[in-house]
Amino acid sequence: MKTALITGGAGFIAHHLIARILNETDWNIVTLDRLDYSGNLNRLNDILEFQCTPEQRKRVRVVWHDLKAELNPLVRKEIGKVDYVLHLAAGSHVDRSIDYPMEFVMDNVVGTCNILDFARSLDNLERFLYFSTDEVFGPAPDGIKYKEEDRYNSTNPYSASKAGGEELAVAYENTYKLPVYVTHTMNVFGERQHPEKYIPMCIRRARDGDVITVHSDRTKTIAGSRHYIHADDVASAVLFLLNYQGTFAPTWGNAKCPKFNIVGSEELNNLELAQIIADAQGKELNYEMVDFHSSRPGHDLRYALDGNKMKELGWTPAKSVRDRIAQVTNWTLQNDRWL
To answer: Are 75 and 63 in contact (CB under 8 A)?
Structure first.
């Protein structure tokens, strides 16, 4: 039986990944977490209590560790033998990165280096997956969708720190032959997301009849847009990659580390998104277009990734993003303690 070490397992995306691994494999899971601003063991408790059998629950262990420190012998012993390392732990709040950039360098660069160092000490490691972000590419002009090997242009400390961690992962592939995959994912949403994120905030404000602010351009006429994707679809893509039996030739410049964009099925602007959420509740949408970028640099109007590589390999999201947004809206209203 294989074991997956998942960093940040009490985080939003990782707990959805844990649920899918438990349901689709017989793997054991060790989750490494420090339970800070983003981590919440209640997420894990929810999926283990309401979505899992007693036997599945026995396959999950939680180990406390702050990745700003190297993994000492006691922590390594507690983790045990590992076949996969899935590195999802990260500081991920853009606003906080603008206020506290060094905090994100420590979490996303130093923390990544420490887990990479641990991974290269493992015998017969099958895969190290570094979970990156669309934001490393920077804003996308109209008509442009960035491919996996396009240039980077970080516009805030969060995306720069994720790019730094990504380059360390690539370096460990090149230097130590660590079997690294890199994924880029954009604007993930789903059940039990942190309430300050945009979709939970829209659900709450639409429910209460409050004004929803919509990120726009300077003229306050064009709403920002994203390719939103449900966390369970992201988990599906990760498992697809871990089980994929094919090989990948080096890309231009003899780059050996394969990279994959995990992309939602449809690009939506933020006004369309807010309208879908209001419609799912039978509510009138009360909104205001706000030029965030001028007052708060680092918030880009449009991000866009090209998802054709994953599609050609045989993976696409299971459901439409509109159905997923309605699903999450209804679930959240029924479980409003997560708001």
So the answer is: yes
For residue 135, indicate whether it is catalytic.
yes
Question: How far is residue 23's CA from residue 26's CA, in Å, rounded to a whole number?
Answer: 8
- Name the active-site residue from 33, 46, 107, 134: 134
Catalytic residue among 107, 135, 166, 300: 135
Q: Would you say 17 and 234 are in contact if contact means Cβ atoms under 8 Å apart?
A: yes
Spell out the per-residue pLDDT of the chain, length 339, in tens: 999 999 999 999 999 999 999 999 999 999 999 876 566 788 988 999 888 999 999 999 999 999 999 999 999 999 999 999 999 999 888 888 999 999 999 999 999 999 999 999 999 999 999 999 999 999 999 999 999 999 999 999 999 999 999 999 999 999 999 999 999 998 999 999 999 899 999 999 999 999 999 988 888 898 988 999 999 999 999 999 999 999 898 888 888 999 999 999 899 999 999 999 999 999 999 999 998 666 556 667 889 999 999 999 999 999 999 999 999 999 999 999 999
Q: Which domains are assigned to the chain?
A: 3-189+227-262 (3.40.50.720), 198-226+268-302+320-338 (3.90.25.10)
Among 84, 130, 146, 158, the active-site one is 158
Phi-psi group of 192: left, alpha or beta (phi > 0 → left; psi -120 to 50 → alpha; rest → beta): left
